[in-house]
Specification:
It is a single chain. The chain is an alpha/beta fold. The protein contains 11 helices and 11 strands. The strands form 2 sheets. It has a 6-stranded mixed sheet with strand order 8-7-6-9-5-10. Strands 2-1-3-11-4 form a 5-stranded mixed sheet. Helix 3 crosses helix 10. The longest helix has 22 residues. The chain is globular, with a radius of gyration of 20 Å.
């Protein structure tokens, strides 16, 4: 049987490159890629696209135009993205009660969901006990805000500017490293030993936060229910190839410290941090589904089977 042609719109990552350049194939599928460096959210016009996980869950609850495939291209700990002013007295997450926090998007930003959930789980700090500021209203009402104070800042202003001026106390920002490169004399990370802080979180919770997921149009999944399993296996193989290549030649990445960084990751975490499949990620997935419900972003706590296609 000839392979089916499917378009895939996603970000450009080392662990997916062997698929993009054709060294790894998805069984039964001819993938047509739209993948660009620096672009991490795909186009929903494609048959399969990279989507923020909270957005997919919210969409599944309402319209169900897409079904999740348990491939998670983008994951990140939130600790490294938290910035404060250098003179700040804030020393950790337990100090965030009553503080003013900037976040790019209120509900679409998965890292914000993870941060708010962990503050509640670990420290008993509810989102309503802080004041939130967002730069992008996501062209939608601020879902799940409820009693929480969320302010959309005026056009032309930036959260970085507000942090520098003392108008907010903490900033959670995807480009924290670039902000520090520009404003390192005035700003710092909340966690100076950030890798140790993230490793401690990982060992405490067993969670490596999931940001993005692959979402397939429901018609595609209805016609070809087997593609979820084929894609999971292909992405796993592509990742294996990428990790093996990096082990053999750390000069593939433009830093002279790649080898010791890999050694530190293995010591503090594990070699393969980007696992695919629902069972391998059940803890993370069930936790974020609970968070989304507790934060009012969905009306009920949804089951994994409602979100993700089975991996045949």
């Amino acid at each position: 049987m000839d392979p089916i042609r499917l378009s895939l719109s996603c970000g450009y990552y080392d662990r997916t490159l062997p698929l993009l350049d054709g060294r790894v194939k998805a069984e039964g599928i001819e993938l047509q890629f739209d993948a660009k460096p620096g672009i991490t959210i795909g186009s929903p016009e494609a048959d399969i696209y990279e989507a923020p996980l909270p957005s997919l869950v919210m969409e599944r609850e309402k319209t169900g135009t897409h079904r999740g495939i348990a491939i998670f291209p983008r994951r990140k700990f939130f600790h490294q993205l938290l910035l404060v002013r250098r003179e700040s007295s804030i020393e950790g997450l337990s100090d965030l009660r009553g503080k003013r926090i900037g976040i790019l998007r209120w509900f679409q930003h998965a890292l914000g969901v993870w941060l708010r959930g962990y503050l509640s789980d670990r420290w008993g700090i509810g989102a309503e006990e802080m004041e939130w500021f967002t730069e992008r209203p996501d062209l939608s009402r601020l879902r799940g805000a409820g009693k929480v104070t969320v302010t959309v800042i005026p056009r032309g202003r930036s959260l970085v500017e507000m942090l520098l001026n003392g108008e907010i106390d903490v900033l959670l920002h995807e480009d924290a490293h670039r902000i520090l490169a520009a404003h390192g004399r005035a700003l710092k990370r909340l966690f100076p030993q950030v890798m140790q802080a993230e490793a401690a979180y990982f060992h405490e919770t067993g969670i490596f936060p999931i940001n993005h997921v692959l979402a397939a149009r429901k018609e595609v999944m209805a016609d070809h229910p087997w593609i979820a399993g084929s894609l999971v296996r292909a992405f796993e193989e592509a990742k294996r190839v990428a990790l093996d290549e990096l082990d053999r030649d750390t000069s593939l990445v433009s830093t002279p410290w790649m080898a010791p960084l890999l050694e530190e990751q293995r010591d503090l975490l594990r070699r393969d941090m980007y696992r695919y499949g629902t069972e391998s990620n059940r803890r993370e997935l069930e936790t974020i589904l609970r968070y989304l419900h507790e934060q009012g972003l969905v009306a009920r706590r949804m089951a994994l089977e409602e979100i993700f296609a089975p991996e045949m």
